[in-house]
Amino acid sequence: MKTPRALQFFLSIITLLAALTALLGGLAGCGGTAPAATPTPTRTPRPTAMVLPPSPTAAPTPTPTPPPTPTPIPENVNPLTGEVVADKALLDRVPVLIKITNYPPQYVWPQAGINSADLIFEHYNEEFRYSTRWTGIYLSKDPQRVGPVRSGRLIDLELTAIYKGVLACWGFSDGVRDIMRDSDLYPDRIVSYSLPETLSPDPFYRDFSRDVPLEHTGYTDPGRVRAWAEARGIKGRQQGLEGMVFSNDPPTEGTPARRLRISWHQLETEWVYDPASGRYLRFSNGLPHTDALDGKQLSAANVVVLYVSQWLTNIVEEPHSGLLSIQWALWNRDNPYRRAIILRDGVAIEGIWNREKRWDMLTLTDPVGNPIPLKVGNTFFEVVPTAGQWEIPVVIEP
Q1: Which domain, by its residues, includes 177?
Q2: What is the pLDDT of residues 236-256, one digit of tens each?
Q3: Can you give the CATH number for the domain in which 160 is found?
Q4: What's the pTM?
């Protein structure tokens, strides 16, 4: 029996739909299971604080280097200047350190005996105020007068040990006095009115030839101080003064340095290179700074900027104002930033200063430990604070 046409048509539609369903099912199974849905990406939260690279002005840390091995020097060569002396007996004696005021200028300029010093250290006075104070170091020359002499500072506790000398200063604040009395310099390497038991014989005197306040009339000289030291058994050539290196050969490295400017509080210090003499000339507050003994402008074969960590102590240095004493970390320990800039022959050379132990000499080297030679002659050290709260402008002009 034939199937009616309507039924055939209906069955064909059913068959077609079944075939289409099978085909779609096969396509869905061709690669296994359907891939999982991609999750919506999430944002990484912003950090609460950014870790920045070191500031370009941050203090570099030099490679730790041992101090150079001291080289024996001839007996007639001054170990502090590299100069040959006519009489080696001038070196067979103790270096003398004298504390010299530099403020206020209307009362103390020009000071006496500065050009005769082998070394001068200039540093802040108290609480990074009131200009600077100087420590003059005398070995080969004996000016007839040095001063005005004022009170010592904590940096002199270090300088006296470094240069194996004796320290003459008019006085100390009470706190610094107590530290000095407890130090290895007391009683035979310090003389001061703040330590009256040391005043035998008294190496100081007053000069009233200038109309200035009483505190600016104190003077001494290296001969008087050595006589005091000899009376206490401190005499003869001091051992351990080797370490400074000198050469008159012009440096082969460095950058042009015609002028050095340091902006202390209430003082503008300038050193200007004089090609005719091959030395740096000193200007203070824009004026030539002279020596009262010979009237000549202060000059130096070398000017060395020492960056030294400094901080305030709890010692009242100046009782009228309440200003505090400064400590100078003039040692390697816990003091990685020891930058030095050596100016000589119109050139500035980057270096590192070193002093490992208390009675070690202060030396100047490059980052790998090679000594940096100074020019033969005297040196003026500018002891400035490292980067931080008390940093001051130091500008070198080519």
Answers
A1: 88-397
A2: 999 999 999 999 999 999 999
A3: 3.50.90.10
A4: 0.83
